[in-house]
Specification:
Largest sheet of chain A: 6 strands, mixed
Order of helices and strands of chain B: HHHHHHHHHHHHH
Helix content of chain A: 25-40%
Strand content of chain B: under 5%
Oligomer: heterodimer
Number of helices of chain B: 13
CATH superfamily of chain B: ABC transporter involved in vitamin B12 uptake, BtuC
Strand order of the largest sheet of chain A: 6-7-8-3-9-10
Radius of gyration of chain B: 22 Å
Helix content of chain B: over 70%
CATH class of chain B: Mainly Alpha
Largest sheet of chain B: none
Chain lengths: 260, 350
């Protein structure tokens, strides 16, 4: 396990969101964190990605405390894409993706043909080569999200954390983005951790699910183990039927209504 | 994988083409700056033939035209270039760090800090020499900026200084210092004279010494600014993404503020409050450089110098036999031009 949270307590100011949580991310899997709004899943992801310093406990990357490692060293191993990131107006797709090379550059070595190759490959993999010179603000939501993932890809990390990569996208574009994530994973066997809201998509695209409620992990395991009618009731307060998905065989949630 | 192999060269070629275009623009701006330098050396209230200007520079004999060129125009031009580069670069940094298109280098209280320190030095220590109160101006600029940064950091809570807390602290400190400066110049006639002259903003009559006095500060600021440009690019993607790319946001911001302070402080102490350059120049070069600070910063410096020198040359010839201060010319030309620019291009959002 390369990424681990050990007894972490997380919060903002006086407010504690996550209290004494343990989680190990299995290397080479796609892990998805699910849970109701405000359960602390994004907070946990931010801590795993070094964007938030734990107030207690520790996050370990390759056995070392992540907050004690140099930012640049972490950035070569682990990339995190926050929810709905913003870019300056007029920034082209190629320029955005090129900025992913930042951790590999220094003041005396700004840009090499290595960088150029990696950026071109990232654009190719996300199918954005033809849009490379287009400003980001002219793209559709799905294309834009692909461009951001492409930037994270150019960063060349083994671990990639994505915070709700499908927010504000219609279903077709959600599937497009998650197919891309799955393809990237299949290519290099990288470790991916996502926060997702859609349970059916989570079940279909993840190897492992982590269900959270009130800052605690309720259950974790394969989608089949985690996505049960009992879990939905306990974690989401939702009465639902779970049936096998006719397409993928993964568990499919059919909601009945809120538990009274 | 054959499609990837086929697709790679054109992508690389496209990236290269963008780079070539940007290098070309850098060359063009440098050439225009060289031209304005020649113009600034050749044009003035005392007509000197171009041949005599050349002789004064290469083989001086101590004649009248030699004195005009060597002791008036050369230092004036040098100072114009220095102040123009400083203000242009400081403007680009300020707008980048605050992600605010209306930010100008004076936002950190640097200008008012310099003004206040100068008038106080005249009132309290009875300083009269230009060279002495320039030191005070520099010190005032640095102190005001440090104060603003401390206030802005305290106001930002755990996350340190944010663009908003910095802008608020800068506005408050500037207003506070301006009130004191106003009180002092009303009390002291000599301070009033210096202040009036300073407030208009001018590169004339400073002499060579002033240039050498402020050069180290401006040069240090410029080096830090250029070195920090890639970091500024990551910051433009938001603090989270910058952090994810391995950039230390707090350090990047602090270093950027040091650069802005050194650049603006040097220019303001030497030339007074030259308005508009820092605000206007980054907007003018953005269509050329795009949102990439590695190009935006040098372009802004070059265009700042071009603009300031051109305004100074215009100021020398429009009101003969007198002169208009460069700050006045810049504001007169700059304001309408800026309005036109903003109306024509939708460049106001960052």
């Amino acid at each position: 396990m390369r990424l681990q949270a050990v007894d972490v307590t997380l919060g903002y100011g006086d407010r504690t969101v996550v209290d004494g949580l343990d989680l190990g991310i299995e290397t080479g899997t796609v892990t998805t964190i699910i849970g109701p709004n405000g359960c602390g899943k994004s907070t946990l992801l931010r801590a795993l990605g070094r964007l938030l310093k734990p107030t207690g406990g520790r996050v370990l990357l390759d056995g070392k405390r992540i907050d004690r490692l140099a930012g640049r060293d972490v950035a070569k191993i682990l990339g995190i894409l926050p929810q709905t990131p913003t870019a300056p107006e007029g920034l082209t797709v190629a320029d955005l993706v090129a900025r992913g090379r930042h951790p590999h550059q220094s003041w005396y070595r700004q840009w090499s043909s290595d960088d150029e190759g990696v950026v071109a490959e990232a654009l190719q993999l996300t199918g954005l080569l033809d849009l490379a010179e287009r400003p980001l603000d002219e793209l559709s939501g799905g294309q834009r999200q692909r461009a951001w993932i492409s930037m994270a890809l150019a960063q060349g990390t083994d671990l990639l954390l994505l915070d709700e990569p499908t927010t504000f996208l219609d279903l077709a574009h959600q599937v497009e983005v998650l197919d891309l994530v799955r393809r990237l994973h299949g290519r290099g066997g990288s470790t991916i951790v996502m926060v997702l809201h859609d349970l059916n998509l989570a079940a279909r695209y993840a190897d492992r699910l982590v269900a959270m409620r009130d800052g605690r992990i309720v259950t974790a395991g394969t989608p089949r183990e985690v996505l049960t009618e009992e879990m939905l009731l306990a974690v989401f307060g939702l009465e639902a039927k779970v049936v096998p998905c006719p397409v993928s065989g993964a568990p499919l949630v059919v909601p009945i209504g809120r538990a009274s | 994988m054959s499609t990837a192999a086929l697709a790679r060269p054109p992508a690389k070629g496209r990236l290269r083409r963008i780079r070539r275009r940007r290098t070309l623009a850098l060359g063009v701006l440098t050439a225009i700056l060289a031209l304005t330098v020649v113009l600034s050396l050749a044009v003035g209230a005392n007509p000197v033939a171009p041949g005599d200007v050349w002789l004064a520079l290469t083989a001086p004999t101590g004649g009248e035209s030699d004195i005009v060129v060597r002791s008036l125009r050369v230092p004036r031009t040098a100072l114009g270039v220095l102040a123009g580069i400083s203000l242009g670069v400081a403007g680009a940094l300020m707008q980048g760090h605050t992600r605010n298109p209306l930010a100008d280098p004076g936002l950190l209280g640097v200008t008012q800090g310099a003004a206040f320190a100068m008038v106080v030095s005249i009132l309290v220590f009875d300083m009269t020499g230009l060279h002495t109160y320039i030191w005070f101006g520099l010190a005032g600029a640095l102190l005001a900026s440090a104060g603003v940064f401390a206030l802005g950091t305290a106001g930002g809570g755990r996350s340190g200084s944010t663009p908003v807390t910095l802008a608020l602290a800068g506005t408050a400190v500037s207003a506070f210092l301006y009130a004191f400066t106003s009180a002092v110049v009303l009390l002291d006639e000599q301070a009033m004279d210096v202040f009036r002259f300073w407030q208009a903003g001018s590169v004339a009559g400073r002499g060579e010494t002033v240039f050498w006095q402020v050069l180290p500060f401006a040069a240090a600021g410029l080096l830090i600014a250029l070195a920090g440009a890639p970091g500024l690019n990551t910051l433009a993607l938001g603090e989270d993404v910058a952090c994810s790319l391995g950039q230390n946001v707090a350090v990047t911001r602090a270093v950027g503020i040091v650069a802005v302070t050194l650049l603006t402080g040097a220019s303001v102490a030497a030339c007074g409050a030259v308005a508009f350059v820092g605000l206007m120049v980054p907007h003018m070069v953005r269509p050329l450089a795009g949102p990439d600070h590695r190009w935006l910063v040098p372009y802004s410096g070059l265009l700042g110098a071009i603009l300031l020198l051109t305004a100074d040359v215009i100021g020398r010839v429009v009101a003969l036999p007198g002169e208009l201060e460069v700050g006045v010319v810049l504001a007169l030309i700059g304001a309408p031009f800026f309005v036109a620019l903003v109306r024509r291009r939708n460049q106001v959002r960052l």
